[in-house]
């Protein structure tokens, strides 16, 4: 029996498979169109996301929204946005391997149920996980990759938080990656 996305979200809301559950306000499962052709996968929720229960609602989310509108012509309601880990790591530290492993089934179910044509991975953690590689984002970005066991294509790009820290060149590169995503969706 296949669960629906709301049923998977309800199960995830009670998850205690790793230590991140102890410090969360709420699970940040994902948001957007459950039939979206485009899915974004980030790293994990920050403080604002943990408070609101929605992914990418802070400064990084505002940048993502702006670049998505400018380069793809979409709003967050027309795509789907999720993270590798569903609970906020303390002090916004990187998620640990056991935490990523504990959350992996949630993300796999999201990808399976949404069945996007294009998955844009935002940063190292989602790119390495979904491409099953140890190669970093600076080497991965700028190309498209077939997503294993699906008909989707993965387009890795920088995490918006890294663009906010890194400036003009990274933003220009992220913009070109989003154009690549738009072209992959229409191709």
Description:
The chain is α/β, with parallel strands linked by helices and 187 residues long. 47% of the residues lie in helices and 12% in strands. A six-stranded mixed beta sheet has the order 1-3-2-4-6-5, sandwiched between helices. The protein starts with a helix and ends with a helix.
Assembly type: single chain
Please give the alpha-carbon distance between the first and last residues.
Answer: 33 Å
Give the count of helical stretches: 9
Taking all residues together, what is the mean pLDDT?
95
Structural class by helix and strand composition: alpha/beta
As a percent range, the share of helical residues equals 40-55%
Short description:
This protein is an alpha/beta fold. It has helices at residues 5-12, 20-23, 47-52, 59-71, 97-114, 124-131, 137-140, 160-166, 168-186, and strands at 31-32, 38-42, 80-83, 118-122, 145-146, 153-157. A hairpin with a 6-residue loop joins strand 5 and strand 6 (153-157).
Write the SSE topology:
Elements: H1 5-12, H2 20-23, E1 31-32, E2 38-42, H3 47-52, H4 59-71, E3 80-83, H5 97-114, E4 118-122, H6 124-131, H7 137-140, E5 145-146, E6 153-157, H8 160-166, H9 168-186
Keywords:
187 residues, alpha/beta, six-stranded mixed sheet, 6 strands, globular
